[in-house]
């Protein structure tokens, strides 16, 4: 039997990637960092540490379905860990006289070259699949329903991922049998089997598992209508008892929390010092010039763990008793002329950077709602309360995806909740940066729902 299955090149790619990356970090250190000093100890320690770091950070766990943003996230994580490692080595081994600035330049150069190599391989493989038909995995789907049809469409419409879908078997009305499926899989040398849980009985699933194990076929399951298996379930053992955790939230990890909080403090401080320090007097003058009332508007909103906090904005409306009950609507007469401008450009949200600095909010996260609206949506919108597992944000994935501003129908809030939950379960610092950049672009272009 061949060591590497047809269509699966990870057995070659990962060792090659390790070799090339180790060549880069060692070669750059010899020609740039060490300057003729004895490299043996440094190269040995750095090479071993790189391999251990890669295992810990899963740096080489890049698959055909991995998104570029996730690859970039892996690179940044590995870069930070590697930089800290080299700093630690230079502090413990003084004989080489390695200084901080050259270390930073060395690490940046290494990761520039590694990034170029990693993305080159990623896109070359995609090109190889689409243009030459190579590196494909043949698939079958067992069970016919909306989800399997959607998966079938995904395979057919995205050839760059390298899946060649051969057939979907329908078990309704006994149109197909398992024996017929198994015979087809063996005759056509199918690589991967996708099973719809809702379309199969427990005994059928057990037979499919046995068949896949005995014939070295990759077996994957599509979640049933309850959708519990669509989550990022965390598998743990309590002694010898397997336990599944429904939702894996990256920001529950102390390291990720520290990184996000550090970024929030740094970013909010920059905005407060370099923008709000001079912009606030100008906006205050314009607000006062047009209408009587306070410059800042304070409103109670629900944040992390459903805790209430005071959210600050530049006042954009005439003072009114309904401000805490009703959102601004298109053509709202309460909005002042200055208010229309600062709402359109999102300038009215800038005082919330003080909320970020105080720890009530984050730069990026689910947008907080008025307390009255939170109570209403919690009763009628499924999974609405999941948004309170993390701190609310000044901007968020939902806001940059067309769900900002007024909630006109339940479809708006349902779409917002889905994107907020996706953000919570897939948080990364790079995703935060991407959302911030998109928010800035939207503010410059003008958002149709910013009124």
Automatic annotation (TrEMBL):
Gene Ontology CC: one annotated term: membrane
Principal cellular location given in the protein's record: membrane
Any coiled-coil regions, as ranges: none
Transmembrane segments: 12-34, 40-59, 71-94, 106-125, 265-287
Keywords: Membrane, Transferase, Transmembrane, Transmembrane helix
Classification via Pfam families: Bac_transf (PF02397)
Molecular functions per Gene Ontology: phosphotransferase activity, for other substituted phosphate groups
Location of the Bacterial sugar transferase domain: 260-444
Membrane topology designation: Multi-pass membrane protein
Compartment list: Membrane
InterPro entries (UniProt xref): Bact_transf, EPS_sugar_tfrase
UniProt similarity note: Belongs to the bacterial sugar transferase family.
The protein's name in its UniProt record: Putative colanic acid biosynthesis UDP-glucose lipid carrier transferase
Organism: Winogradskyella eximia
């Amino acid at each position: 039997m061949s060591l590497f299955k047809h269509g699966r090149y990870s057995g070659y790619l990962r060792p090659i990637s390790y070799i090339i990356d180790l060549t880069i970090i060692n070669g750059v250190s010899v020609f740039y960092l060490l300057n003729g000093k004895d490299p043996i100890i440094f190269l040995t320690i750095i090479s071993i540490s790189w391999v251990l770091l890669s295992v810990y950070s899963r740096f080489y766990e890049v698959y055909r379905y991995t998104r570029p943003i996730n690859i970039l996230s892996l690179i940044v994580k590995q870069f930070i860990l590697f930089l800290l490692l080299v700093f630690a080595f230079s502090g413990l081994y003084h004989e080489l006289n390695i200084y901080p600035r050259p270390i930073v330049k060395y690490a940046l150069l290494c990761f520039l070259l590694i990034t170029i190599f990693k993305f080159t391989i990623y896109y070359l493989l995609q090109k190889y699949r689409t243009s030459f038909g190579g590196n494909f995995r043949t698939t079958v789907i067992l069970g016919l329903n909306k989800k399997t049809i959607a998966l079938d469409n995904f395979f057919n419409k995205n050839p760059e991922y390298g899946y060649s879908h051969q057939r979907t078997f329908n078990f309704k009305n006994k149109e197909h049998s398992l024996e017929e499926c198994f015979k087809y899989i063996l005759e056509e040398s199918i690589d991967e089997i996708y099973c719809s849980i809702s379309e199969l009985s427990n005994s059928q699933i057990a037979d499919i598992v046995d068949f896949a194990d005995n014939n070295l076929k990759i077996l994957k399951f599509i979640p049933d209508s309850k959708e519990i298996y669509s989550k990022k379930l965390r598998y743990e053992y309590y002694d010898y008892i397997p336990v599944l955790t429904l939702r894996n939230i990256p920001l529950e990890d102390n390291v990720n929390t520290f990184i996000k909080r550090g970024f929030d403090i740094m970013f909010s401080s920059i905005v407060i010092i370099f923008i709000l320090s001079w912009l606030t007097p100008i906006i205050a003058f314009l607000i006062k010039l047009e209408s009587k009332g306070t410059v800042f508007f304070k409103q109670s909103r629900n944040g992390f763990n459903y805790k209430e906090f005071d959210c600050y904005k530049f006042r954009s409306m005439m003072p009114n008793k309904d401000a805490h009950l009703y959102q601004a609507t298109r053509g709202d007469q309460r909005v002042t002329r200055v208010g229309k401008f600062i709402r359109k450009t999102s300038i009215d949200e800038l005082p919330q950077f003080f909320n970020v600095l105080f720890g009530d909010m984050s730069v990026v996260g689910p947008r907080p709602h008025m307390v009255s609206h939170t109570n209403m949506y919690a009763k009628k919108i499924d999974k609405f309360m999941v948004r309170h597992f993390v701190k609310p944000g000044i901007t968020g994935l939902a806001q940059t995806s067309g769900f900002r501003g007024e909630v006109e129908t339940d479809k708006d809030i349902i779409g917002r909740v889905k994107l907020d939950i996706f953000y919570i379960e897939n948080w990364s610092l790079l995703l935060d940066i991407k959302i911030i950049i998109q928010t800035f672009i939207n503010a410059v272009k003008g958002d149709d729902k910013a009124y």
